[in-house]
């Protein structure tokens, strides 16, 4: 009995340390920054543009780019002029000439966003919704807009499923405020990108039991092996700007 009590007291500092620090060896090393992309040609009037709502987890531009690149890989070979738009401090960037990110960087983007093993552990909290803009003044009605919305309603969940999280196809909504994917025509008015604290994909809690157990197991294995414990202060480093995109 006394031996068990000693073991329990010996584990207390281990548990406290595991809760307060991050173990570098448990996570992949920070990937190198991506080289600057070549300038992209501007979109032409009538091109279809799309982006994600400003909601987790798509408010991390690294994850958004990884998913958008997979969607782009499904669309670009067909010759359809449907392009992902990334919001940057200096304005918007429509990825017309090149994909949002090359295929060789998708895994690095996911790892840098904190998902080295894919998105399979994330909870699905709702159905995703796609909104397409109404006919723009001064532009002829374009069936390409509704067709693109329908295609994205299928391709976005398929791209996310390829990263380990199975989803049902998105639904089409006429309410911009509830949309997760926004579609509009170049040359028409740019819609206000909705922002919210949660979307159709949830995030694991920072202090979740699963994350704590993972740290404790790795810490104990390091102590048993009597190897020095590497600690990390700060983030793993950024590939791209991670945070809110202006609406």
Notable traits:
globular, 5 helices, alpha/beta, disordered C terminus, two-stranded antiparallel sheet, 2 domains, single chain, 247 residues, six-stranded mixed β-sheet, 13% strand
Count of structural domains: 2
Spatial strand arrangement across the major sheet: 4-3-2-7-5-6
As a percent range, the share of helical residues equals: 25-40%
What structural class results from the helix and strand content? alpha/beta
Oligomeric state: single chain
Following the backbone from N to C, one meets helices and strands in this order, namely: HEEHEEHEHEEHE
Quick one: overall form? globular
**Radius of gyration, Cα only, in angstroms?**
22 Å
Note the gap between the termini: 62 Å
What integer is the average pLDDT?
Answer: 76
Major sheet: size, sense and barrel closure?
Answer: 6 strands, mixed
Work out the strand percent: 5-15%
What is the number of helices?
Answer: 5
Number of strand elements: 8
Low-confidence stretches: 17-28, 224-247
In short:
The chain has helices spanning 2-20, 61-75, 106-112, 143-162, 209-225; strands at residues 22-23, 48-52, 82-88, 91-94, 129-132, 171-173, 181-185, 231-232. With 247 residues, the protein is of the alpha/beta class. Residues 17-28 and 224-247 have low confidence and may be disordered.
Q: Could you outline the blueprint of secondary structure elements for this entry?
A:
Layout: H1 2-20, E1 22-23, E2 48-52, H2 61-75, E3 82-88, E4 91-94, H3 106-112, E5 129-132, H4 143-162, E6 171-173, E7 181-185, H5 209-225, E8 231-232
Parallel strand pairs: 2-3, 5-6, 5-7
Antiparallel strand pairs: 1-8, 2-7, 3-4
Helix pairs in contact: 1-5, 2-3, 2-4
